[in-house]
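> call design_seq(struct)
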C-alpha cells in the first residue's frame, strides 16, 4: 500500500487537477444543462406557461451566455482560468438564489440569462483552457477525461435533482444548486487550481526540464484572433459546430419531455435520460484515447454527426418504442459523447493555444443560432402535440453538420509552431 501511495504522490499534478476538474464539470453540468428538462412540467403546471415559453428561458439564457463568451475567453487568455472560475462560481451561486424567486415569465428569462452568463465563467471555456495548458502530447485523452465530467453530470445529478425537486419543489432545488456550487468551487480554486504547470515548478505533461534550465511558463503558440478569423476554415468549423449543437441542445432540453410524451413516467424518463448521459463516460474516454491518434478531427466529427442522424431517425421511425429507445441510446451515447470534445480539439489543432479562449468564445457567439432549437422544438410540440417534426428538424441539422465538417476536412490549416 505504501508503494502505491508514493506512486500517487509522485504523479504529475496535472492528473490531480484533471480529476478535480471532472468533478467540477459534473456539478456544473448536472445542476444546469442536464437537469433543465426536469423543470418543464413543474413550471407549466404552476404558471400555465407553454412548453415553448419554458424552453425559451433556456434558449435566451444561452444566447446571453454566448454573447458573453468572447469576453470570458479574453479574460481567461489575459489573466488565466483560475480567477475567472472563482469569481464565476460565487456569482453563479448567487444567481441560483435569484432563480428561486421566479414568479413571472420575464423573470424566468432574465434570471436564467444572468445565471447562464455567470456559469459561462466557471464551466466549459475556462476548464477547456485550463486542461489544454496542462497537457500537450495527451491533450486528446485529457479532454476526453474532462468530457466524462459532463456525462457524469447527467448520470449522477438528473436522478438526484429529480429527488430534490420532489422534496423541496423547484424553487428549493435552485437554492440547493447554489449551495453545492459555492461549497465545491471555492476551495477548489483557492487550494488546487493553478493556471500553468510552471506555477508549481512543473513542466507541461510532467516532462523533466533540461539540466540547468529554469522552469518558466513557455509562450503559448498559435495564430492570433485576427489571423484565425481571416481563414475560411474557422468559419466553416463554426458553422458546422452550430448545426451540430442545434440538435444536441434541443434534445438536452426536450429529452425528458419527449420520453414522457412517448408514454414513459417522469421517473422512467429521467432514468432513460441519465442512462444516455452516463453511457458517455466510457465512450468519451475511448474517444479521447483515439483522438490523440486521429490526424484530422474533422473526420471524427463526421462520424459522430452521422451517429446522431441515425439516432434521431430511429426515434422517428419507431415512435419511441422500447426497442427503438434502446437503439437510440446506443447511437446517442456514441455520437453525443464525441461531439463536445470535437470543438476544443478542432480549435487547438487548427489555430493553437495563444488565442484559444477568445476563439472558443467567438465560436459560441457564431453558434448562438443553435439556441433557437429548444424554442422551435417546443413550438412544434405545442402546435402538433407530437415531437415527430422536431425529430425531422434535428436529423436535418446533424446532416448539415456532417456536410460542413467534410468541407472543413478539405480546407488547409494555418501554419504555426507546436504548443
Amino acid at each position: 500500500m505504501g508503494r502505491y501511495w508514493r506512486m500517487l504522490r509522485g504523479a504529475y499534478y496535472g492528473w490531480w487537477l484533471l480529476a478535480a476538474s471532472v468533478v467540477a464539470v459534473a456539478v456544473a453540468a448536472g445542476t444546469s444543462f442536464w437537469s433543465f428538462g426536469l423543470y418543464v412540467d413543474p413550471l407549466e403546471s404552476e404558471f400555465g406557461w407553454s412548453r415553448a415559453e419554458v424552453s425559451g428561458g433556456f434558449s435566451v439564457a444561452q444566447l446571453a451566455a454566448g454573447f458573453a463568451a468572447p469576453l470570458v475567453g479574453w479574460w481567461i487568455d489575459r489573466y488565466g482560468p483560475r480567477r475567472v472560475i472563482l469569481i464565476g462560481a460565487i456569482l453563479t451561486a448567487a444567481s441560483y438564489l435569484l432563480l428561486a424567486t421566479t414568479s413571472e415569465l420575464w423573470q424566468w428569462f432574465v434570471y436564467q440569462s444572468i445565471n447562464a452568463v455567470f456559469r459561462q465563467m466557471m464551466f466549459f471555456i475556462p476548464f477547456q483552457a485550463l486542461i489544454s495548458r496542462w497537457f500537450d502530447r495527451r491533450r486528446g485523452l485529457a479532454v476526453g477525461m474532462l468530457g466524462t465530467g459532463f456525462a457524469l453530470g447527467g448520470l449522477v445529478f438528473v436522478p438526484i435533482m429529480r429527488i430534490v425537486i420532489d422534496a423541496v419543489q423547484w424553487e428549493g432545488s435552485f437554492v440547493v444548486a447554489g449551495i453545492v456550487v459555492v461549497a465545491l468551487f471555492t476551495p477548489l480554486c483557492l487550494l488546487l487550481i493553478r493556471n500553468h504547470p510552471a506555477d508549481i515548478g512543473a513542466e507541461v505533461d510532467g516532462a523533466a526540464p533540461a539540466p540547468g534550465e529554469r522552469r518558466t511558463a513557455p509562450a503559448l503558440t498559435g495564430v492570433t484572433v485576427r489571423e484565425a478569423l481571416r481563414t475560411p476554415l474557422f468559419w466553416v468549423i463554426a458553422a458546422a459546430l452550430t448545426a451540430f449543437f442545434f440538435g444536441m441542445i434541443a434534445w438536452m432540453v426536450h429529452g425528458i419531455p419527449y420520453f414522457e410524451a412517448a408514454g414513459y413516467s417522469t421517473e422512467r424518463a429521467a432514468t432513460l435520460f441519465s442512462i444516455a448521459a452516463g453511457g458517455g463516460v466510457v465512450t468519451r474516454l475511448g474517444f479521447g484515447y483515439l483522438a490523440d491518434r486521429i490526424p484530422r478531427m474533422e473526420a471524427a466529427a463526421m462520424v459522430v454527426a452521422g451517429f446522431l442522424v441515425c439516432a434521431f431517425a430511429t426515434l422517428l421511425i419507431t415512435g419511441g418504442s422500447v426497442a427503438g429507445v434502446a437503439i437510440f441510446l446506443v447511437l446517442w451515447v456514441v455520437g453525443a459523447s464525441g461531439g463536445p470534445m470535437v470543438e476544443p480539439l478542432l480549435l487547438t489543432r487548427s489555430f493553437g493555444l495563444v488565442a484559444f479562449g477568445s476563439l472558443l468564445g467567438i465560436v459560441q457567439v457564431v453558434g448562438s443560432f443553435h439556441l433557437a432549437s429548444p424554442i422551435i422544438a417546443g413550438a412544434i410540440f405545442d402546435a402538433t402535440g407530437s415531437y415527430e417534426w422536431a425529430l425531422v428538424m434535428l436529423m436535418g441539422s446533424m446532416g448539415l453538420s456532417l456536410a460542413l465538417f467534410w468541407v472543413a476536412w478539405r480546407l488547409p490549416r494555418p501554419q504555426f509552431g507546436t504548443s
